[in-house]
Every structure is written in C-alpha cells, then in structure tokens.
Design a protein that fits this description.
By secondary structure, this protein is of the alpha/beta class. It folds into two domains: 85 residues, 3-Layer(aba) Sandwich (Rossmann fold), CATH 3.40.50.20; 114 residues, Hexapeptide repeat proteins (UDP N-Acetylglucosamine Acyltransferase, domain 1), CATH 2.160.10.10. The strands form five sheets. The protein has an eight-stranded mixed beta sheet with strand order 6-9-12-15-18-21-23-24, covered by helices on one side. A six-stranded parallel beta sheet has the order 7-10-13-16-19-22, with no helix packed on it. The protein is globular and about 50 Å long.
Length: 221
C-alpha cells in the first residue's frame, strides 16, 4: 500500500526532496506524493512542479500523511519539527535517494534526507531531520546529531562526532576523530583539524573560529 507524503517547505530544498521521492518511486513504488505545505501564505493555492501547495500546517489537522520537513535552516527545522510532534499526528520518514550508498550497518533517523550520490559508511548514525547533500561522504563510526546540515561534497572522516544543528559547508573536510559540537558552522571549503566547541563559526584551510554565539541562540526563532 502506498503511503501518502506531503513536503513541508515549497522551496528549493522541497523540490529536491520531491525529486528524491520520485526517484524512489521510479525504483520501487512507495509514495503517493500529495504535494506541499508552507508557512508562506503567498504560496498557498499555487503549484510547484505540478503539485499543489495546500496551505500551512493547519492542513495537517484533517489530513494524516507522512511529512518531510524541507526547511534549510537547522533551527527553523527544529522548531517546526517540535511543533508538529506536539500538535499533529505526523509521521516522519527518511528519504534516501536510490543512488546514495548507505551501509546496511548505518542508521538514518526519522525525517532525514539523503541526496543523490551521497555515501554513508558502516557503523554511522545519522540523527533525525538531518540533510545530507549531494556527493557528501560520511565515513565509518560517525555520529551526526539531529537537525544537522551536511552540504554537498563535504567529507567527514571516520570516528567524528557532529553535534545537533551543526552545519558542515560544501567541500569542507574533517580529519578523523574530530568533535564538532552543537549549533556550530564550518564554512565551505574549510578543513577541520582540531575539535570545535558549540555555537561557533569556523572557516579556513585550517579552520579557525571567527564568530561565537551565546548559548541557546538557536531558540530565538
């Protein structure tokens, strides 16, 4: 039996998720893709790639469906997921593109999206509502916290720990056994060669901290 799927977020990330669901269906029919919901009322009643934008989250009050949250900002994605968990009877599937190589010994959490040509090696655990971008390479024995973004072509070497809500930029690299703590940002093309604390932004060929945020900044949405 096909499962009804609605995509929360009628933007670029949502379109990517749509194409992943379509690719899954082309491989093995699994989803009845209904359309989109979005917080922006201007989009309500419009269409994206031939699918309707039904309205906002209130649509879920009378419609039971699997929901994939496609909001790029980790802190906004966290807020929406917590709201939906508490207010609606939602189910949150993981979407894995058929071209992604995911070890049978890896775990991908609820609501996470794994884009084309990404690789996830053995004994790695991906949290809930995580984005793994195109061609990202995630090594073995890695833990990635909820709501993290691993952007296209990033490389995370073995035995690393990536905290909740952390963003690893496109083409960034970590050496093995790094700990990058929660709600931090590693800039595009950076190389992480030492542990990073929470709530910082680090950039450069030997990533250095250029900005710090106060604890709990992610809650101010």
């Amino acid at each position: 039996m096909l499962r009804d799927l609605v995509i929360y977020g009628a933007g670029g990330f949502g379109t990517e998720a749509l194409e992943i669901a379509e690719a899954i269906n082309a491989d093995t029919l699994q989803w009845n893709i209904l359309g989109f919901i979005d917080d922006d009322s201007i989009k309500h009643g419009t269409g994206i790639c031939g699918y309707p934008v039904f309205g906002g989250r209130e649509w879920l009050r009378n419609n039971l469906a699997d929901v994939i949250i496609c909001i790029g900002s980790p802190r906004l994605r966290r807020k929406v997921s917590l709201d939906l968990h508490s207010e609606y009877r939602c189910r949150f599937p993981a979407l894995l593109h058929p071209s992604a190589i995911v070890s049978k010994r890896a775990i991908v959490g609820a609501g996470s999206v794994v884009c084309p040509a990404a690789t996830i090696a053995a004994n790695t655990q991906i949290g809930n509502h995580v984005l793994v971008g195109r061609n990202a390479s995630i090594g073995h024995d890695i833990t990635i916290g909820d709501y993290a973004n691993i952007f296209p072509s990033a490389t995370i070497s073995g035995h690393c720990r990536i905290g909740e809500g952390t963003e690893i930029g496109s083409n960034a690299t970590t050496i093995p056994k790094m700990n990058i703590n929660s709600w931090s940002v590693v800039g595009a093309g950076s190389v992480v060669i030492q542990d990073l604390p929470s709530n910082v932004t680090a950039v450069g060929s030997q990533a250095r901290i250029i900005m710090r945020r106060e604890d709990g900044w992610q809650n101010h949405v």
